[in-house]
């Protein structure tokens, strides 16, 4: 449940940076950096450990470690609590402490790698495909892009538009799936249609083979309109 987990560096790189930092602080000490495969790591099984450094927010975790150690027949660790440095410049959505979560938050909007030039691609209009699962923020990002001047094409709305009477896919869908998918007013009942195709890969493909090309043509038409508008 880490914030922006996709932007967390690989373990090997983080461990190397940590080792470099620790050796810079005190080269004479020997450090053993251990990957944690569970919430406790070696802290509940290593009899040689004597102390656990915690912060105010992780003290309860330290107490849970000691409880586990007692269950395992090991002595409790001394809990040494440190104060975390505050970040005076944190924004409303960032943590008060100096943290990697806030640093990842600040990476948003920066390029992770240079744009790839495609010789076959026209320089304009510049088309962005915005995808993601339910609740991933597509609508919010589309709204922000719209405020910045982007011409927003909502594929969900086009998906509804292809089904309406007179729409480009209406006749084909009715022929393929029968008049029983129609409401009394002649509109397609999407729930009845959905019951026919979901769970049936062949019928679902039949539907998408009809609908998706028509949606693609509608998208291309809107892109041309956006280009004409500048």
TrEMBL record:
Keywords: ATP-binding, Nucleotide-binding. CDD domains: DPCK. GO terms for biological process: coenzyme A biosynthetic process. GO terms for molecular function: ATP binding; dephospho-CoA kinase activity; pantetheine-phosphate adenylyltransferase activity. Pfam families: CoaE. InterPro entries: Depp_CoAkinase, P-loop_NTPase, Rossmann-like_a/b/a_fold. This is COASY synthase.
């Amino acid at each position: 449940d880490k914030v922006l987990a996709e932007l967390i560096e690989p373990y090997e790189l983080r461990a190397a940076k940590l080792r470099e930092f620790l050796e810079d602080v005190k080269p004479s000490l020997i450090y053993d950096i251990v990957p944690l495969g569970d919430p406790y790591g070696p802290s509940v099984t290593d009899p040689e450990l004597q102390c656990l450094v915690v912060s105010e927010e992780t003290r309860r975790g330290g107490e849970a470690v000691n409880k586990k150690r007692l269950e395992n027949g090991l002595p409790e660790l001394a809990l040494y609590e440190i104060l975390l440095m505050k970040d005076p410049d944190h924004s409303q959505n960032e943590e008060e402490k100096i943290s990697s979560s806030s640093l990842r938050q600040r990476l948003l909007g920066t390029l992770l790698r240079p744009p790839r030039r495609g010789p076959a691609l026209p320089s304009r209009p510049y088309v962005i495909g915005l995808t993601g699962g339910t609740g991933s923020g597509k609508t919010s990002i589309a709204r922000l892009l719209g405020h910045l001047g982007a011409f927003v094409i909502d594929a969900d709305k086009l998906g509804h538009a292809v089904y309406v009477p007179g729409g480009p896919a209406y006749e084909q869908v009715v022929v393929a799936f029968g008049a029983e998918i129609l409401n009394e007013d002649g509109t397609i009942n999407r729930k009845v249609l959905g019951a026919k195709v979901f769970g049936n890969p062949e019928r679902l493909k039949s539907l998408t083979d009809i609908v998706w090309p028509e949606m693609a043509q509608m998208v291309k038409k809107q892109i041309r309109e956006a280009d004409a508008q500048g």
